[in-house]
């Protein structure tokens, strides 16, 4: 045996002894880690299976709530969506909350806006969906000249907002309704200058610009109707009959009273 082979055999024997020592000392740790990995993978797969079953059940309940919304009253639909939102997974829970707020707004705009505000204040939801809830809540109250709704629309009309197009359009229409033609024109100018304005909104914008160019609408009171013809004169307390419009015959003149006899 050469010297190199002897050294290699010694090294191999040393490594085997070293591995045997490590295994005898840490074998329990290795086995425990292996068990944990197996349990972790099994638990993860079970959780995925359970989530899939919950999502499927929530989907069926959500479809049932949609059918009730189409064929029932807003109050019944709101209760159905609220039931889905109580224990459904996150995605269906959020959809159900949005639909429940919409159904509540049909019966009571203030109640619907309050439900949307609760969604907008939920920090567990993404910012874009929170802004969507703010927009829908403001749209429910904008016709009532609610100051909070107008402030919300103005904040959503910022250039960085994903819902700036809808917010600007509604603010322009509100200004037109109030007779503020200049204010409406400023909002419509922002819509026209935005390169990302949707095509449908640009088509409506042509109508809005025409309304702004026409200036404020002057509303005048209607003329008072002409007074009705006076009733025909009476003779001795008996009204003179009016002529018949169908026969075009004149009513006979009343006979003069006979003169009284003189003594």
Automatic annotation (TrEMBL):
Top-level division of the source organism's lineage: Bacteria
An example Gene Ontology molecular-function term: protein-containing complex binding
A GO cellular-component term linked to this record: plasma membrane
Keyword rRNA-binding: no
Pro residues bias: start-end ranges: 227-244
Record membrane topology: Single-pass membrane protein
Protein name from the UniProt record: Ancillary SecYEG translocon subunit/Cell division coordinator CpoB TPR domain-containing protein
Main location: membrane
Location(s) in or outside the cell: Cell membrane; Membrane
Signal peptide: none
Segments passing through the bilayer: 26-47
Region (Disordered): 222-263
Domain Ancillary SecYEG translocon subunit/Cell division coordinator CpoB TPR: 23-190
Keywords: Cell membrane, Chaperone, Membrane, Transmembrane, Transmembrane helix
